[in-house]
Every structure is written in C-alpha cells, then in structure tokens.
C-alpha cells in the first residue's frame, strides 16, 4: 500500500492505443516495398547511368542489379523494375493485397500499417475512402536546398478518423505491460472503452538516407550521450518511450517546433493539434504527421490542410526552425545536461519545444534542439541551412 495525494501526477498512468481508420486492402508489392531502400543504395545511381547509356553494358547492369538485390534483400527483378521506372520517369506503384494484422495489438504495428498506406497514397497521388481522403502535394520549388533535401514528399489529409482505446492504467511508477490494471476490474469483458474522433492534417515524408548519413556523422561525445540515455531507458524501465535514436530526436523536435508554429496560422488551439511520428530504422522510413482530431467536431475546418499546401508549408517550416534557434531560457536551456521526465530532454523546455501533453505521443520527452540547429554537427547545417 502506498499513500498518495489525490492530485498527485503518479496516481494514474493511463495506457491507451490509437489507430487511424484507413483502407485495409492496401499492401505494397515488393517493388513499392523496397523502392526507398534500393534508391538509397550507393550503387543505384551508377546503375541508372549504365541503363541510360549506350553500348554493350548488359553484363555491368546485371552485376549491379545482383549486388543491390543481395544487400537490400529483394529479388533482382524488383531492383531492375525500380531502376527502369526511375529512368523512364514513372512512379513506382504497388499492387493491392489483403493486409493481415496478426499478433498482439501494439502501437508500433499500427504505425507501420499506417505508413504503408501513406506511402501508397503518395505513389498513387491520392486515396479516397469513406473515412480517409488524402492527396499528394508538391513542396514549393523555391524552398531552400536544406528543406528540399529533408522533405521528400507531402501528403494532405483532408478527411481523417482516429479511434482511441483505453487499455488500462498503472499507479505510482509505470512498469511492464504485465503490471497494467485492466479497466474491467472484477468483471472481465471482451471489449474496451474507446472514442472516435475526426479531423484533418498533413504528412511529411522525410529523406531517411539523409537522416542516416547525418546520424553516422555525429561526434563521439554526442553518440556516447545518446547511448547513455538509451541505457537509462532500459535500466529504469521507461517502457513507454521508443529507443533513443539521434534521427528520432531530430524528427520529434522538428515535429514539436512545427506544431507550435502552425498553431498561430491554422485556427485550431494548440491542445487540439497532435503529432504522429513514423520512424523505423529496420524498414528505413521516416515521416511525421501533424493533425487535429477532436471528439467535439466531426469533419474539419480546412485550416490545417491549408498549412500543408505548397504556398504555405515551406514558410511554416522555415519559421518553425527560426523560432527553434533561440529560447528565452537560453543559455540555460541549451546547456542543461538533462531536463524533463527522466532527464531525456536536452535543449528543450516549455519556452521553446514542449507542447500540450495531449499533443505529444511520447510524454514531451526525447527532444533536443541541438540535433537540428547546432552549427557544428546539427542536421540542418549539414543539409545546407544557413542558421
């Protein structure tokens, strides 16, 4: 037994899970599934050169195709189809098969399913269903080089339905899922309490290859600090946080800065906006979604979708990064070794990066402005940003 004050923050740790209501018959063919990995391979550009060239280069093409296929882990025909489509200027699209979701219900499983649908919508140009409407949007051609190097594609979500289910709760100190108290205490039920919310938003598909190169170029001191944070996450059993990764820190921080910025322009309150981070190092994809989904408003007002259009998005991202360069608590904020829950934040506080608890999917942790803007090794300076 533990005595707690009624208003104590550790009295109730809710455990929830959410999923977007998206078309379930979308699953990529091997061509679409491996397209990004093949294009990111170091030999892919040389393969394109030989395909575009003239002369007897078949043996060279076959050799490059074999090497890329072996290292990526796909069939040679898949590599050749991706390269041919690139040379001919065709979009790589996948076939449709039934998506089978098996195993335990976990948030990561849903995110992976959602990202495959987002990518399929980007490849097709649009995707329309009863509860999901998305259309691809071009990034402003006048955007700076660092922005065009980071953001590959944009998807406008004009109609969105999200379902949030309540799995249970924990008290005092959160631990493994086995310690979770079911919401149907004493009366086992085969259903969970859930809500459905409607909204809109936009998705940024980020350049995973650029993020990967930057992550490997970080100084040893920063890599060691990130490794120490990951060890702390495991030792102290912060099970609800994802693995500490420099690329994830950069994406998450950019998401918070952008979320704070578009609040001033879209017409929604800051607590109405939410983020959704799509990042998987194994499957090699990275992206983020800023969306609004409120139970008190069915449909959307269009304000947030408008911020994702080509004539506004680039300006919003540039303004967000500009705001992130300086915090009113600097130099204390940027030089603090660790702050926030568990000390998992570095250069991030309420004056610069933190958002409403209902807006962040990771408890306002794993944030660091330095990952984006540090003049020596930050992501944006490495991409060519003049900060």
UniProtKB/TrEMBL annotation:
Pfam families: MZB (PF09369). Residues 254-353 form the MrfA-like Zn-binding domain. NCBIfam families: DrmB_fam. This is MrfA-like Zn-binding domain-containing protein.
């Amino acid at each position: 037994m533990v005595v707690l004050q009624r208003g104590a923050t550790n009295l109730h740790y809710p455990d929830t899970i959410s999923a977007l209501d998206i078309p379930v018959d979308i699953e990529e063919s091997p061509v679409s599934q491996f397209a990004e990995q093949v294009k990111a391979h170091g030999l892919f550009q040389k393969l394109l050169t030989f395909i575009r060239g003239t002369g007897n280069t078949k043996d060279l093409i076959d050799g490059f195709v074999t090497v890329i296929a072996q290292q990526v882990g796909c069939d040679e025909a898949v590599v050749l189809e991706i390269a041919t489509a690139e040379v001919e200027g065709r979009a790589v699209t996948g076939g449709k098969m039934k998506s089978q979701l098996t195993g335990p219900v976990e948030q990561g499983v849903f995110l992976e399913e959602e990202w495959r649908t987002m990518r399929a919508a980007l490849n097709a140009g649009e995707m329309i269903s009863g509860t999901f409407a998305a259309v691809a949007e071009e990034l402003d051609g006048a955007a700076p080089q660092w922005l065009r190097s980071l953001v590959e594609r944009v998807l406008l979500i004009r109609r969105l339905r999200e379902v949030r289910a309540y799995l249970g709760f924990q008290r005092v100190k959160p631990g493994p899922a086995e310690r979770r108290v079911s919401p149907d205490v004493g009366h086992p039920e085969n259903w969970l309490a859930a809500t459905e919310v409607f909204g809109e938003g936009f998705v940024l598909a980020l350049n995973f290859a650029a993020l990967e190169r930057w992550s490997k170029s970080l100084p040893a001191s920063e890599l060691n600090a990130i490794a120490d944070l990951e060890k702390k996450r495991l030792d102290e059993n912060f099970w609800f946080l994802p693995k500490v990764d420099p690329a994830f820190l950069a994406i998450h921080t950019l998401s918070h800065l952008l979320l704070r910025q578009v609040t001033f322009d879209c017409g929604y309150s800051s607590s109405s906006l939410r983020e959704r981070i799509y990042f998987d190092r194994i499957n090699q994809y990275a992206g983020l979604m800023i969306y609004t989904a409120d139970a008190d408003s069915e449909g959307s007002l269009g304000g947030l979708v408008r911020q994702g259009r080509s004539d506004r998005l680039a300006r919003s991202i540039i303004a967000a990064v500009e705001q992130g360069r300086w915090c009113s608590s600097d130099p204390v904020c940027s030089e603090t070794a660790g702050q926030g829950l568990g000390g998992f934040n570095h250069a991030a506080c309420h004056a610069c990066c933190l958002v409403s608890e209902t807006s962040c999917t990771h408890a306002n942790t794993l944030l660091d402005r330095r990952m984006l803007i540090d003049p020596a090794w930050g992501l944006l300076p490495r991409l060519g940003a003049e900060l």
